[in-house]
Amino acid sequence: MTRDRIESEVPSSVADRMINLRLLHLRECAEIWSESESIEDFINVCNEKKIDFRWQDPLDETLFALKFKDKSWVKYLKAFGPRIAEAPVKEGNPYLFWYEGIPPFYNPSTSSMMLQPFINNRIIIKVPKKQRVKYIENDLIVESKEYLTGFQQAIALTSFAADDPAVFSAKQKSNQNLTYKSGTETMCTLDLCEKEYNINTGLFVADSGRYSVYFSSAYKEYRKLFDLPPIVPRDPTQLIAEILAPEQPKKSFNLDNDSSGLYFSISAGIRNLLTTMWTEDSIWDLVITSKEFFDQHKPGQTVKLINELLDTTYPLHFDLVLMEDEHAHYILDKNTGKGSWKWIYDDEFVSKFQEGSDIKAGVPYSISKLPLQIIEYTIPTPPQNEGMAPIALMNYDVDDYGMPFTC
Fold first, then answer.
1. CA–CA gap between residue 277 and residue 313 (Å, rounded)
2. Structure confidence by residue, pLDDT tens digits, 276-335
C-alpha cells in the first residue's frame, strides 16, 4: 500500500470496510513475524534479569537501554495496553499483547493454517440492558421504577440498531480517539495500523492483535524460572466440547460471499437475542459476561447459548462475548414522550483518561464516545522456515463458511 493513496478515502460498503480490516490484520501479522527474533530477545533479556516479561515496558531505558526502540511490536503492545485499561501496568495487570494459548500455526505437510474456531479470535459486543423510564432534569438522570412499555422497547431496540450495520459500526466525525492514563488507546491498534499502512477502514471498532508465546523457547525458560508448571499441549483445546469446534476451514478466495448480507443478519440476530434478554432477566444473566467474570469466559459458551436460544447457527469462527454497555441510556422527552439513546459518563469514568480528552462527565452524547465492538485476533506463529512465510500468510488469508474470513 503506497503513501500516495488518498488518506480520506473511506470504503462505502460494509464488505469493503471489512476487507480493509482484513488487510490491516495481514499487514500487522507480516510486520510482527519479521520482528519475532526481537520479541524472543526481549523475553530472554527479561529472563536474564529475572523479571516477568508480561508487565515490562520495552521502552524502559533503565532495563533495556534503546534496544527495542522503534520496533513495531512495541507500538502494538503499548497501544493495546494492559488488561485493566485505566490502571498502570504492573504485577496482576499485564500487557494484553501477550497471549499464552495456542495460536494458528502453519502445517507444512498440508500447506495450510491450523486453526481453533472460537479460541484464537473473538468479537466483544456491548449492548444496553432493559431500560426503565428515564428523563433528564437539571442535567441529572431521573429514573423511574417502571420499565418502558412494550411499544417503547420496540422503538428503543430499532433505534439502537440504526447504524449501518449495528455489529460493525461506521466511524462518526464526533468520535475522537481517547487514551487512558495507562497509555492504552480506546481503538486499541486500529488507529495505529491505519496510520502506519495508510489503509482506512471507516470502522468505529476497537481492533487488536495478540502475540502468542506458546511455542517460544524463551517462554518455556520463563516458566521454569518462575516455577510455573510446564505447558500441557492439549489443555487450551479442551475448554469447549468437540461439537463446538467445526471442521477445518475449506479454502475459498471469494472475498465477498454476500458479506454485507451476513453482517446485517448478525445484526438482526443480536437484536432478536436482545429482545429475549430484555424479556427474561434470567436469559440476560446467562448470556451477558460481566467485567468481574470476563477472564473466566470459556470459548464458545455464548455461541452455544445463542444457537440454542435463537435456534440458529452462529456463522463465524470468532468467539462471541456479550457485555453490558453501562453508559447507554434511553432518555424520554417529558414534553413529547419521544425517546432517544444517550451515552453518559460519570466523573469516576472520565478521570481514567489523559488530560485534554474530548469526553466530559454528565454530558448526554447522541453517539457513543467509545467503540461498542472489540475485535481481538491471535497473530499466527510464523513458520520455522522463513522462506515459507509468504505461503503461510496467504494460506491464513482464506474464506470459508465461517465468514467473514477465517483469519
1. 18
2. 999 999 999 999 999 999 988 988 899 889 888 988 878 787 889 999 999 999 999 988
Cell of 93: 495487570
Could you tell me which of 26, 113, 190, 119 has the C-alpha nearest to residue 400? 113
Q: 231 Cβ partners below 8 Å, 6+ apart?
A: 214, 220, 223
Amino acid at 76: Y
8 Å CB contact between 272 and 311: no
In DSSP terms, 132 is beta-bridged to 147
**Residues 392, 16: Cα–Cα separation, whole Å:** 24
Q: What are the grid coordinates assigned to 225, written together?
A: 524460572
State residue 277 phi and psi, 5-degree precision. Answer: -70, -35
Average pLDDT on 359-385 reads 92
Which residues on neighbouring strands pair with residue 208, listed in sequence order? Answer: 376
- DSSP letters, 15-74, are HHHHHHHHHHHHHHHHHHHHTHHHHHHHHHHHHHTT--GGG--TT-HHHHTTTTTT-HHH
Other beta carbons less than 10 A from residue 6's beta carbon? 8
How many angstroms separate the Cα of 327 from the Cα of each of 103, 189, 285, 333?
34, 23, 18, 19
110 C-beta neighbours (distance < 10 Å), count: 10
> Tell me, what amino acid is at 230?
P
Distance CA 250, CA 258 (A): 17
CA–CA separation, 134 and 274 (whole Å)? 20
Angle between helices 301-310 and 259-279 (to 10 degrees): 80
Question: Which residues, 6 or more positions from 124, have their beta carbon under 8 angstroms from its beta carbon?
Answer: 321, 322, 323, 373, 374, 375, 376
Which residues, including other chains, have CB under 8 Å from residue 205's CB and lie 6 or more apart? 21, 168, 169, 187, 190, 371, 373, 374, 375
Peptide bond into 230 cis (omega under 30): no
**Are the CB atoms for 20 and 11 separated by under 8 Å?**
yes
Q: Count the neighbouring beta carbons within 10 Å of the beta carbon of residue 356.
A: 7
Q: Say how far apart CA 152 and CA 278 lie, in whole Å.
A: 12
Which residue reads 451477558 in cell numbers? Answer: 288
Beta strands 206-212 and 373-379, pairing class: parallel
pLDDT digits (tens, 9 = 90+) for 162-172: 665 667 788 87
CA pair distance 229, 222, nearest whole angstrom: 11
